Structure formats: C-alpha cells, structure tokens
Amino acid sequence: MAVRGRVDDPGGGTPAGFADAQAALRRARVRPEVLLGEAPAPQRLAPFSIALTAEVMVDGEELATGRLVVLHDPDGQEAWHGVTRLVAYAKAECEPEMVADPLLPSVGWAWLTEALEARGAAAVALSGTVTRVASESFGGLADAGRGATAELELRASWTPLGDDLDHHVEAWADLLCTAAGLPPVPQGVATLRPRRRS
C-alpha cells in the first residue's frame, strides 16, 4: 500500500499509530461488488496519509464511486479531536425524481451514520454535506439518448475512536452499496475479500 509520509520524519520511520492504521485497512472485508484501489494521497493536510478508491460494480456497470482518505498527525490537530481523521466521498446515480425529495439529503446522511453504527465504528466530530445534482441534456447529448440524470454526493469527515479502521472502511463501503441501491447483506452472512486493484 502506497503511503505518503513526511520527508523530515526522524529516523525515516512510520509512527506506530499510522502503521496500525495501515494494518487495519488491509483487514477490511467488503462486499464482492466493491472494488478497492489506491489513489495518490493529499500532500498538505497531514504528515502521513493514505487514500483509497472504491467502485461498486454490478454486471459490468458502475453504480457508485467513492474515495476515503486517512490522515494522520502524530501531534494531533485540535479540530480533529485526535491524531487520525477520515475524509470520505461517495457518489451514486439516482432516479431524477428522487432529487426533488426534500428528505433525500437527510436519508443520505443517515446511510452514513447507520453504516458506522452497524459496523461498530465509533467516531467523534462527524461532519459533512449531502448534495443533490440534477442534469438535463440538450442538443446532441439529448439526441444521443442521454436525457435527464441525477446524482447524490456525500462528503464527510470524522475522527475514529480506537484502532479499528477496518470497520470504518467497511462502513464506507456499506454506504456506497446502499447509495447504489444494493440490498443489505443479511446479518451473519460473510462476505469475501475482493481482489484489490493497484
């Protein structure tokens, strides 16, 4: 797993807290429809960071996408209320009539909070936004059959409590699956670990 760390880190080593975070990410178990990959991590938000991407694929069709960034500052940051912060993004297409529903943002936010709770992923300082985007195509795009489209986008950040980042990754993947319209996996049914893309 590619990791960005500060060049001036004494001894060139990775702090124990961040090494634990890396190990926890590798333990995450997500549904087979979720393809996890790595992405370049942001350079200026924290001394150490990892970025994951996800696609929810069913029958070759992409239903949702997302990105999860793990930020780590051994000295902590006051706004985080801790030394590690997770920044998540999720996007999924939805039916155009759904974007007119005034409850859709609240429902989208509930998907995240319920996923965290269901996975036992305790967190503090949870904040974010849910955005509805509706688009109408005209001219050549309309002639090509593109028509009206709608998307739901969620951006959130939170500080995990404990070292169980695998549960946070699993909750983020669950959020993506819910946004994609996949039915929940019954409790007690195990999911297989998917092949990770590099």
What does this structure look like?
- This protein is of the alpha+beta class and 198 residues long.
- Mean pLDDT is 83; it is low at 1-12 and 190-198.
- The chain has helices at residues 16-27, 104-118, 140-143, 165-179, and strands at 34-39, 48-58, 61-77, 82-94, 123-136, 148-160.
- Helix content is 23%, strand content 37%.
- It has four helices and six strands; from the N terminus they run αββββαβαβα.
- Helix 2 (104-118) runs antiparallel to helix 4 (165-179).
- The termini are close together.
- It is elongated.
- Strand 2 and strand 3 form a beta hairpin.
- The protein has one domain.
- It has a six-stranded antiparallel β-sheet with strand order 1-2-3-4-6-5, covered by helices on one side.
